[in-house]
Amino acid sequence: MKIPTRRTILTGAAILLIASSVFAAGESEKKLLAEAKIDRTNAERIALAKTPGGKIKSGELEKEHGKLIWSFDISTPHSKNITEVQVDAKTGKIAAVEIETPKDQAKEKKADTTKKH
What we know:
By secondary structure, the protein is an alpha+beta fold. The protein folds into 2 domains: 1-35; 37-116, Nuclear Transport Factor 2, Chain: A, CATH 3.10.450. 47% of the residues lie in helices and 28% in strands.
């Protein structure tokens, strides 16, 4: 019988850690979806009404400042800016609208990358 090497053990531990974090994220998302009264389709419709001609690039359901919100990044024709529209997932009201310039987007991407490491 071959004794597992340190490398094999570390690889197995890493796989378990990744799998458990993915499972936890899925459970967390299910919990948030159960709390939401507004589904993603309706939230998208509400967000797009604030940005005529816009196209949703990404969206997620999250807790922010104690509120459950749908957050969408929306691009608009002829602009490099992204409009972030947040829709309250319980009431359907607009919680916030922010314009992100390419410089803001780069800063946010860098911060997200730093959080993940």
